[in-house]
C-alpha cells in the first residue's frame, strides 16, 4: 500500500542517527515508522517520544502524506548544568506516498505514549465485490 519515493532516505536517517545531527526546518530528521494492514484499515505508527500533540503537523495532498513534528529542549531551571544530552532535538519529518486504494478523506490520527498512529481506511472501490452477469439465461454471481 506504500510507495517509496526516495531509496536513499533510509540511509540518510541512519547517518543522522550515528552523527547525532539535529533536524532543522530546512533539513528535518526522519522519524521511525511502522506500517501494516489491519482488516480494512492501513495503519502507520510513528515514534515521537517527548513530542506534544500540538507540535505535530499532519498534511495530505493528493496521495502524499507528510508528518512533521518538533521536539524542543526541556526548560531547565537556573543553575542546571547539562551533563549528558543524547535525546535528539529539532524537527522530524516523514513523507509517505499512499496508494490510490486508500481513502485519504477519512484518516484518523491518535497520539499516545509518544506514538502517533494514523488509521487510513481501504477505499470502497478497492475492496473485493460481487459482479452480476445479466442476460436472457439469468444472472450469475462471481467474485470480483
From TrEMBL:
<dbReference type="InterPro" id="IPR008978">
    <property type="entry name" value="HSP20-like_chaperone"/>
</dbReference>
<protein>
    <submittedName>
        <fullName>Hsp20/alpha crystallin family protein</fullName>
    </submittedName>
</protein>
<dbReference type="Pfam" id="PF00011">
    <property type="entry name" value="HSP20"/>
</dbReference>
<feature type="domain" description="SHSP">
    <location>
        <begin position="24"/>
        <end position="136"/>
    </location>
</feature>
<dbReference type="InterPro" id="IPR031107">
    <property type="entry name" value="Small_HSP"/>
</dbReference>
<dbReference type="InterPro" id="IPR002068">
    <property type="entry name" value="A-crystallin/Hsp20_dom"/>
</dbReference>
<comment type="similarity">
    <text>Belongs to the small heat shock protein (HSP20) family.</text>
</comment>
Amino acid at each position: 500500500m506504500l510507495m517509496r519515493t526516495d531509496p536513499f532516505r533510509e540511509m540518510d536517517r541512519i547517518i543522522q542517527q550515528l552523527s547525532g545531527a539535529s533536524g532543522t526546518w530546512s533539513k528535518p530528521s526522519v522519524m521511525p515508522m511502522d506500517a501494516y494492514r489491519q482488516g480494512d484499515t492501513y495503519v502507520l505508527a510513528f515514534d515521537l517520544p517527548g513530542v506534544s500533540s500540538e507540535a505535530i503537523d499532519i498534511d495530505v495532498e493528493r496521495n502524499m502524506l507528510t508528518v512533521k513534528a518538533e521536539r524542543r529542549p526541556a526548560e531547565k531551571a537556573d543553575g542546571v548544568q547539562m551533563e549528558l544530552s543524547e535525546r535528539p532535538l529539532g524537527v522530524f519529518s516523514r513523507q509517505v506516498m499512499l496508494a490510490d486504494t486508500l481513502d485519504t478523506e477519512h484518516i484518523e490520527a491518535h497520539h499516545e505514549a509518544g506514538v502517533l498512529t494514523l488509521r487510513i481506511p481501504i477505499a470502497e472501490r478497492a475492496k473485493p465485490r460481487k459482479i452480476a452477469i445479466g442476460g436472457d439465461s439469468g444472472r450469475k454471481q462471481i467474485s470480483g
